[in-house]
Amino acid sequence: MLLSVENLRKTFSGTPVLHDIDLEIEKGDVVAIIGPSGSGKTTLLRCLNFLEKADGGRLTFAGETFDLAKISRNNVLRIRKRTGFVFQNYNLFLNKTALENITEGLIVGRGIKKELAQTKAHELLARFSLTHRENAYPSELSGGQQQRVAIARTLVLKPRILLLDEPLSALDGLIKESIKERIRMIARQFELTTLIVTHDPEEALTLSDRVLIINNGRIAQFADPMTIINKPADDFVNDFIISQLMVKRTNILKLFSGPNPKNAATLKAESGALA
């Protein structure tokens, strides 16, 4: 087991946001975290990377256990060095090229020489099919390209855990499917434990090994996708997952049966423009 959390608690201005969260996550697991808006899913992700400080609970990471209410600054920094975080808006340096965004953490944060940092960055740019865009600035990149740069910038630091906050929210169509497959590939090839916050049940079910469903700051269910579908823990899980999937199905049917139905070639062309 790479990561476990016991009784993690968090409040904002006296209002409880997370209630006694218990988790156990194995090395290489891809876990999707999903729940209604305001359920606490992003707060949980931020607590795991200490962007928010939990009020209490215990965290065990790579065999070491820490009291979340009393953890030292040095231990926070040690854990962060082994944890990668990709923000929803990517947080790329606007005044730096794709190559420079990837090398920045190695040069400034790790003290690696520029030539070696660039060699490592070029390897990831090639892996992510971005070699031809290495000198482009974020404003010159599509949403999909920006996301790939953000992930590469994180992977070059060789984290043990990858945290992704709504990585697909700004993407559409085929490019979203391409990025989903890329995330799965990254988890396999790098043996990365990956936690992904999403609002989309379809993404959660098709992208992950296990799905963590949060409601009002509590875990409603934590299980593999087939169990979620076939044996929902309660009415909330059933309604939240199934109702959203039904809405998506209805919207897809409308797309293809409306007054100006779109065909597959049209959708592919529109999605390709975002790649």
How many helical stretches?
10
CATH architecture of the largest domain: 3-Layer(aba) Sandwich
Number of domains: 2
The outline comes out as globular
Strand order of the largest sheet: 6-7-8-3-9-10
Classification by helices and strands: alpha/beta
- Percent strand equals 15-25%
Low-confidence stretches: none
Order of helices and strands: EEEHEEHEHHHEHEHEEHHH
- Strand element count: 10
What gyration radius follows from the Cα positions, in whole Å? Answer: 20 Å
List the helices and strands and how they pair.
Layout: E1 3-12, E2 15-25, E3 30-34, H1 41-48, E4 56-61, E5 64-67, H2 73-81, E6 83-86, H3 98-109, H4 114-127, H5 143-155, E7 161-165, H6 173-189, E8 193-198, H7 201-207, E9 210-215, E10 218-223, H8 225-230, H9 235-257, H10 264-272
Parallel strand pairs: 3-8, 3-9, 6-7, 7-8
Antiparallel strand pairs: 1-2, 1-4, 4-5, 9-10
Concise description?
By secondary structure, the protein is an alpha/beta fold. The chain has helices at residues 41-48, 73-81, 98-109, 114-127, 143-155, 173-189, 201-207, 225-230, 235-257, 264-272, and strands spanning 3-12, 15-25, 30-34, 56-61, 64-67, 83-86, 161-165, 193-198, 210-215, 218-223. It has two domains: 3-82 and 159-272, Rossmann fold (3-Layer(aba) Sandwich), CATH 3.40.50; 95-155, no CATH class.
